[in-house]
Amino acid sequence: MLRTRSLICRRALVRTYATPASPHALVFLEHREGVIAPGSLSALTAAEQLGGQVSALVVGSSEQVPAVVEKAKKLKGVNSVLHSTSPQYAEPVPEVLSPLFEELLKGNSGFTHVVSATSSSAKSLLPRVSARLDAPTISDITSLEHDASSGSTTFTRPIYAGNAISTVRAPGSIPIKFFTVRGTAFAPAPATAEGAEEKPVDPVEVKDPVTVHLKTTIAKSDRPELGVASRVVSGGRALKNAETFQKMLYPLADALGAAVGASRAAVDAGYADNSLQVGQTGKVVAPELYIAIGISGAIQHLAGMKDSKMIVAINKDPDAPIFQVADVGLVADLYEAVPELTEKLKK
Amino acid sequence: MRPSAVRLLNILVPVKRAVDYAVKIRVNPQQTGIDTNVKHSMNPFDEIAVEEAVRLRERLGAKVKTITALTIGPAKATDTLRTALAMGADSGIHVEVSESAPAPEPLSVAKTIRTIIERRNKDAKSEEDKIDLVILGKQAIDDDLGVTGQMLAGLMDWSQATFASKVEIDTDKKEALVVREIDGGGEEIKCRLPLVITTDLRWVDHNNLSPRYASLPNIMKAKKKPIEKLTPADLGLDYTPQLETLKVTEPPKRVGGGKVANVDELLAKLKEVGIEAKA
């Protein structure tokens, strides 16, 4: 309490001109089974680039929160970890989390930015909160720059499925700027030895919520997670069915220690799970190596993978658009080339 | 008089006229935006939203009282509205903005939808005339923001079901069971009406359906369906953007590195950059 008061005094003294508040980001840290989501670690890095204080927010049930807070305290760039515990936060829906955010951000909270990964849950939550505060949400930013003197933040973000890059400025007149961060554009915040301070926050109970979580089904896999894998092997419609998709792609992916991805055509045809889709409407990946097998290379697919370091394409059609972006192209029947590649790799 | 026990749904479907998904867009030389002198069509996610509204009526019959399509855009956006009407919406609302004006930001769009719902619900003679379901696409393929539905739900304080791939509505209980696409899998939630739904592409697979093509007779019929024209000023709204677009640029060009003749050459290329099998 004392601290807050002294802060207010200091600000009152300094405020001869309408000086914008120094940046203070609130980063929504997502976690599952005690592990902080890699996308949230990238969001932290982006928040740190604003050049001010960074507070991380961890919400969850009493079983989940303590372990995650311990990890969050050690993350580079984190000045404080706010945490809020409630049974309602175990599998939170935006309708239940939004009031907590509103409580945290109301009045003179000092927060100037609210940051999250571009994840499905944050994408559902942040715009809801921002609208209630009459502020925009800037989605999926790939770079940012904060101007402390004017309090404005300039972002770049891809539009038109990544076929154009838009540079937008959120002026100082927007007191709290909401944005989600494209994970592949920022390195994840590493752990350090230091520990940030922690501050428990009272949960805001939502009586009789209008939306209730019933169940979650997560597709389990031993392979690395698609969004953060350093190598990705991806298949398209040419794989004919789910069985050949697995038979062709999985051994190659395992040989390389790669994650498996799929084009929308392959997902739509039922060869692969939805969660594997790479593209404008699926995941955006930027691995060291992306091998596109039997994928023609539609704009929507390229939107999800064209920032990969090295793109390899294997396709029967020499005119497939994928060859225009591939660093290495092989025109061949995938049913021969892929097993051969897998075999020779293993040697 | 109708028996009061019957619950009726009134669905609002906002649709956006966007550059056709198959068009290879070009950034204009002034770097202020893209060359929009190209084919436009209804945002694909919005097509799914319209289809979903029409399917709901096919499943629930008379329980779906009205389907209203709404668009905010230049005069040409009327075409998009007509497409929605030809697909099965009953009437349209067109909030017209000038061709040269910047596209309204999602928050302005959400406020427009809110105002339209509030006006309609205030004028409603009974509960059964009120809009209690809004179905939107999960994102527009031009700005790729994907925030309007959530903003609307926040402004209205309604429940929201984003990235929905399956929706079952119990009109008597005023509840919806929704399967959502989330990172790494799926999620099931139960929402109370009134509700805002945003559609995922996967809705198509889960239901094994694609958005219908409007048939010629339906296109002809759609020409007779009513469209109410409004302006932002009529609704007491100001579309001045909060954000300033400084510039729009081309992404860095990626140049293909050419082709190799066989698997061995491919392996050699991989080796060059240090990629080998993981032990």
From TrEMBL, chain A:
Its main location: mitochondrion. SMART domains: ETF. It is found in: Mitochondrion matrix. Gene3D superfamilies: HUPs (3.40.50.620), TPP-binding domain (3.40.50.1220). It comes from the Eukaryota. InterPro entries: DHS-like_NAD/FAD-binding_dom, ETF_a/b_N, ETF_a/FixB, ETF_alpha_N, ETF_asu_C, ETF_asu_C_CS, Rossmann-like_a/b/a_fold. Its cofactor is FAD. GO terms for cellular component: mitochondrial matrix. GO terms for biological process: fatty acid beta-oxidation using acyl-CoA dehydrogenase. SUPFAM superfamilies: Adenine nucleotide alpha hydrolases-like (SSF52402), DHS-like NAD/FAD-binding domain (SSF52467). The electron transfer flavoprotein serves as a specific electron acceptor for several dehydrogenases, including five acyl-CoA dehydrogenases, glutaryl-CoA and sarcosine dehydrogenase. It transfers the electrons to the main mitochondrial respiratory chain via ETF-ubiquinone oxidoreductase (ETF dehydrogenase). This is Probable electron transfer flavoprotein subunit alpha.
TrEMBL record, chain B:
It holds the Pfam family ETF. PROSITE patterns: ETF_BETA. Keywords: Electron transport, Mitochondrion, Transport. One of its GO terms (biological process) is fatty acid beta-oxidation using acyl-CoA dehydrogenase. It is found in: Mitochondrion matrix. GO terms for molecular function: electron transfer activity. Residues 32-239 form the Electron transfer flavoprotein alpha/beta-subunit N-terminal domain. Coiled coil: none annotated. Its cofactor is FAD; AMP. GO terms for cellular component: mitochondrial matrix. Binds 1 FAD per dimer. It comes from the Eukaryota. The keyword ATP-binding does not apply. Heterodimer of an alpha and a beta subunit. Belongs to the ETF beta-subunit/FixA family. The electron transfer flavoprotein serves as a specific electron acceptor for several dehydrogenases, including five acyl-CoA dehydrogenases, glutaryl-CoA and sarcosine dehydrogenase. It transfers the electrons to the main mitochondrial respiratory chain via ETF-ubiquinone oxidoreductase (ETF dehydrogenase). This is Probable electron transfer flavoprotein subunit beta. It comes from Gymnopilus dilepis.
